[in-house]
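2024-03-11 09:14:02 DEBUG pipeline.ingest accepted 1 chain
2024-03-11 09:14:02 DEBUG pipeline.ingest length=461
2024-03-11 09:14:03 DEBUG pipeline.predict start
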Amino acid sequence: MHVSRRWRLRQLGLAALVGAVALAGCAKRQGVRRYDRTQLEESLKNPEDSGLLLLGSFPLLKVIDGDTLKVAGLDQTLRLLAIDTEETFKKEKERRAFEQGWERYLAEAEAKSRGPVKIPTPLGEDAKHFAADFFKGVRTVHLERDHPGEVRGRFNRFLTYVFADKGGERLNYNVECVRAGMSPYFTKYGYSHRFHDELVAAQAEARAAQRGIWDPAKMHYTDYDARIAWWNARADYIAAFEEEAEGRDDYVILTRFDAGERLKALEGREVTILATIADIRYSKNGPIKVLLGRRMFSDFPVIFFDHDVFEQTGMRRHKGEHVRVRGVLTTWYNKYKKEDVLQIEVKLPGQVRLSPVVRPGSEPPPGAAGDEVQEPADAATTEPAAAEAASPEPAPDDALQGQSQSGAQTQSQTRDDDDRDDAAHDDHEDRDDDAERDAEDGEAARTQARAARTRRSAAPA
């Protein structure tokens, strides 16, 4: 990662702090002003605006756990960047399982998991108490983004650093949480652009002092070295793509807020997309559809009419990890929605490049060496017999739409929602970590899916 890029973002952040607006005072006089899409679009119009990284100042409503807060004026909880505290006990059966003994509880969870476990622990409870103590007496928090293009996460939560005024100075809770040993420096979705050095130093300090998760006498996950190696490998892969993409309009990071508009503008051109594999839809007679993760209900479809090509890419065993997909952007008309959808058709294995990253406890998939798979010179592809019948449903192009569903949702989208519910049920452990550590957001997604099914049943045939 270029130091100069991180320095530029840090300068924007400092300027944003100076220009912060105290919305809490306005809330007392006029009620809480809700931060909506219109305000967000206004804040992103001018990329040179010094307040670009500032989300705003908001009344703090509730500390849910060590890495989840609720504030007034935002429609979702916050996803706190660069930290991932252990889970808290929310269900009685979890407490009963823990009461059988910590070593047995952890061993049974690890035996059931295909990777690092995400379970409630006493250290998760400690992290919640640390957060409650940190924000005690704090009425207003100041939220900032890490990167101008990173606004919301997969489950529509705002991606933020949280600052609080304490003892005459403004402290970054994310950094202090790591310093206290309540969380490692969480790099699974990339290194911090603005506070990387501070987070590295905070983690080293906590580890040297054996605080929190670094205290061998406490009850917490025991595989942090393996987790951090995995996360950092993912972050290195993202950073390498960011560096390669700098100054190029045909390289698109799918999670960026403007990815949808950029892809629409590039229709007909060859592009390279960086994303994670969110889901894979199999079909006996039609194409295989790989959904690249973006937002719930708006993932990007990659189409394989040739099932053998799909198997050669190694994507089947790479779900949840990063992938680069290269291909020409084409559109298909969805007759249910009456609109065009962008997609990429993969005809050769070399269009797909898997990250070399391997989740702890997993075997590396074929082709995950980081290099493109070579095809024989006479490689052929199978063209679809009926493209309209076989092509995938489209995903909404608006990157800010997130989970919002209106009464105009079509039967096609409803069918898509049902498929997502089934996939989530069958493969719970591969869900995004955001859903796992915030049950309320997961419930919101399920509520929307149920509402969509209700609309479908009420719609005329």
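2024-03-11 09:14:41 DEBUG pipeline.report Residues 1-5, 7-33, 46-50, 368-445 have pLDDT under 50 and may be disordered.
2024-03-11 09:14:41 DEBUG pipeline.predict end
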